[in-house]
Design a protein that fits this description.
Layout lengths: L1 H12 L14 H8 L2 H4 L1 E4 L2 H11 L4 E6 L5 H14 L3 E8 L1 H9 L10 E6 L31 E5 L13
Parallel strand pairs: 1-2, 2-3, 3-4, 4-5
Length: about 170
Amino acid sequence: EEDYEFYLHTSLETAQPYGWLPLTQVCSRWREIAVSFPRLWRNLVVSGPELTEMAWERTTGASLRVYAFIPLRDVFRERVLACILQRDAHRFQTLRLRLPLAHLSHVLGACSTEAPLLEDVDLEDYCRHYPPTFRLHPPPAVAIVIPFAGRAPKLRLLALRCVPVPWDSGLYES
């Protein structure tokens, strides 16, 4: 499993999260095993509609590590992500999101149920990488919603990059 975790991390860094898929072409037995092994699919990367849905279906109850990079104006990925957050927050172990700050509150608002397995949350406003002259509008004042109804008992890491959180948001309580 350690080798697999290293391979997965390397694959995510090189934008090939399902880099192991060619192994399913070795023979029908390997394909059968890979398709029916939920832990291979639990690293759910929100991408194109078919691959995201196929991967989600194959997780069949496994804990999830959800990764999403949502470019500005990619309404489809934002909707898919919101849907996954609504129906499967109880299965999340990791949630790593890079999206425009203006969309972050909307997406997090979909997380209204508790996340008992969640250990790692990493949120980033990806627009921060652009100089202000390239932004269409100044960064909006966004009220960040506390996701998961404030209930994520196993949470150990919360990384917020360029995500302003008001002192009175409730995030700093207990």
